[in-house]
């Protein structure tokens, strides 16, 4: 059973920077896992932010960026705004099994 | 504007069946891979399965918990995605989301499996 692990919660001050990570139980995350990142606010559907490690959708604010960091996928929020308070999920693709696995989610609090 | 709208959720008894639909607009539906994702109450997101385009073989892949019980299909002439759910279990209770290539998401439809 593959597990994708994220930090359970992170707190950041308005205007600050925070980095969320996404680790795979199978080993280092590479671009071949095509990492995606999503934001979900209470009572709402998820919203896509990043695809294929670092590509932004047309609606993704510039303060969100994706990368690979130390064998993990990473999502960095720079110049955090109060409206960024939400749950964030990563999604990894496992080609051998032809399946995807979501991360456990990170609750970001802006305080 | 790309939009996907799910329908068909409801209350079903354990062991029962249900079919969800997802109507897409604003995209060339036949050109996109489509997926289903679910979220149990108070829990995280869980990938359910995916169907490729007919050009790419039209094949389907499923998460282990639903493999053999759930079937994803598509009707490109109707721009509609389906999720046939059989042998439902209480642990299948969740909001089911349809998504086009994991970029555009619907608002979801609630499936409750309970006696």
Can you describe what's shown?
The complex is a heterodimer of chains A (111) and B (115). Chain A has 111 residues and is mostly beta strands. Chain A has no helices and eleven strands. In chain A, the strands form two sheets. In chain A, strands 2, 4, 5, 6, 9, 10 and 11 form a seven-stranded mixed β-sheet that branches. The model of chain B has no long low-confidence stretch (mean pLDDT 97). Chain B is built from no helices and eleven strands. By secondary structure, chain B is an all-beta fold. Classes of the chains: A mainly beta (111), B mainly beta (115). The A-B interface holds A 1, 36, 38, 40, 45-48, 51, 57, 87, 89, 91, 98-105 and B 35, 37, 44-47, 50, 61-64, 97, 102-108.
Short overview:
The complex is a heterodimer of chains A (about 110) and B (about 120). Chain A is mainly β and about 110 residues long. Chain A is built from no helices and eleven strands.
